[in-house]
Design brief:
409 residues; alpha/beta; Rossmann fold; eight-stranded mixed β-sheet; binds cytidine-5'-triphosphate
Length: 409
């Protein structure tokens, strides 16, 4: 059982931290909530205390005999601050310590994850940008805020990232404290996710059961590591990961257009989507009725292999990453199929997943082997999809480092 301190700063998104708290405790972690005095204006101490099963204080005087302003930070395996307001980020960056949360941040030696929430102007202000840069330079993970509806009538960048996404990154940091270095800053990465749908008529399609969870985890981890991320999502029912630019598509041909467009200046393209190999040759433009003439058998036309096209048209230095969803068969293992596919597709990295029934599709967990065109092989044991995503970005970042981007390209 890991010990997490959940810091809550004073913003309206404090109410969403109650959901995050639930997710962390339900995952079996021991969570102590440390709100600021302003956070208690939004959500009262009784809520935090009841959900965490711990007493709650915002100041350093309550329970002074236990010296909790030092103990909490020292004993924590992870500190998560959600929401992190502009004021809280400024205090953390400058080492101020005027309440229990800021004292805890100074004494903590574990990973620290900030999930910011504030109005767009505050996030974009040079003071906040400098404070965020300082915190990142010191090794803290500062997520990008999400975009969308803010407190008033306005919309823009500044929403708290979804609690599920914060919980996933928190879990990742507990398992691997070094999983989110800020090493993809200045890089543009393109990730495709989900499963394409090929229309038979306006209401029917040929599809597959990809949930998009793995591709979304790849995008979320890249954003947390500083990349500018374009996420091309085919039929995924998940919220946009914070800090990513999401392009929603339906069919393989739409996905192909969106990926090629985004790939023009990309450093890395990750094809995590399950792309239909075939589409109906003719799409009927009205709903096929069972009372009418029996429909003709559905003829199929092969879709272009987008991964192969990306390999053929890549910019010098750009990395192309494929995924291979495989089941073994009597003639060859999952890994044999993966090796043959890497060779055939010509990509730099191939993540091989075992998708035998119940293994990966729609599940929160995954296992995989990351094969490199240089013959390397990195096994990632069964765990959260964000852990496989982090291992993939480790492998990609190593290769990017080996061939730095020429200036101005
Ligand atoms: N892919 C693609 N375009 C397609 C089909 C697949 O870009 N038309 C990409 C997938 O996104 C994935 C990789 O190719 O990154 C491997 O997909 P997979 O379906 O396993 O490969 P196939 O070449 O279709 O091989 P198989 O015969 O095993 O289906």
């Amino acid at each position: 059982m890991s010990r997490i301190v959940l810091g809550v700063a004073g913003g309206i998104a404090a109410y969403k931290a109650a959901d995050l708290l639930r997710k962390l405790t339900e995952a079996g972690h021991d969570v102590t909530v440390v709100p600021t005095a302003s956070a208690l204006q939004f959500v009262g101490a009784a809520t935090w205390s009841a959900l965490s099963h711990h007493p709650v204080a915002a100041d350093v005087w309550t329970g002074a005999a236990e010296v909790s302003h030092v103990r909490l930070g020292r004993e924590a395996d992870l500190v998560v601050v959600a929401p992190a307001t502009a004021d809280l980020l400024a205090k953390a960056a400058h080492g101020l310590a005027d309440d229990l949360l800021t004292n805890t941040l100074l004494t903590a030696r574990c990973p620290v994850l900030f999930a910011p929430a504030m109005h767009t102007e505050m996030w974009e202000h040079p003071a906040t940008a400098d404070n965020v840069a300082t915190l990142r330079r010191r090794g803290s993970v500062v997520m990008e805020p999400a975009s969308g509806r803010l407190t008033g009538r306005d919309t823009g960048k500044g929403r708290l990232p979804e609690p599920i996404e914060i919980a996933q990154l928190a879990t990742l940091l507990l398992d691997r404290p070094d999983a989110l270095p800020f090493d993809l800053a200045g890089r543009h990465v393109v990730v495709s996710a989900g499963g394409t749908r090929e229309a038979i008529d306006p209401v029917r399609f040929v599809g597959n059961s990809s949930s998009g969870k793995q591709g979304f985890a790849v995008a979320a981890v890249a954003a947390a590591r500083g990349a500018s991320v374009t996420l091309v999502a085919a039929n995924v029912e998940l919220p946009d990961p914070a800090g990513t630019d999401v392009v929603r598509v339906v069919s393989a041909l739409e996905l192909r257009d969106a990926v090629h467009k985004a790939a023009l200046d990309a450093d890395v393209v990750v094809m995590a989507a399950a792309v239909a190999d075939f589409r109906p040759s003719d799409t009927v433009d009205h709903k096929i009725k069972k009372s009418g003439e029996p429909p003709a058998p559905i003829g199929l036309t092969q879709n272009p292999d987008i991964l192969a096209e990306l390999v053929a048209s890549r910019r010098p230095g750009a990395l192309i990453v494929g995924f291979a969803a495989e089941t073994g068969d009597p003639g060859a293992s999952v890994l044999d199929h993966g090796r043959a596919k890497l060779e055939r597709k010509g990509c730099d990295l191939l993540v091989v997943n075992d998708v035998s029934p119940g293994k990966a599709f729609g599940q929160p967990d995954n296992a995989g082997i990351i094969l490199g065109s240089d013959g390397s092989e990195r096994a990632v044991e069964h765990g959260p999809k964000s852990a496989l995503a982090a291992a993939l970005w480790d492998a990609a970042a190593e290769r990017l480092l080996a061939s730095p981007r020429p200036p101005g390209v």
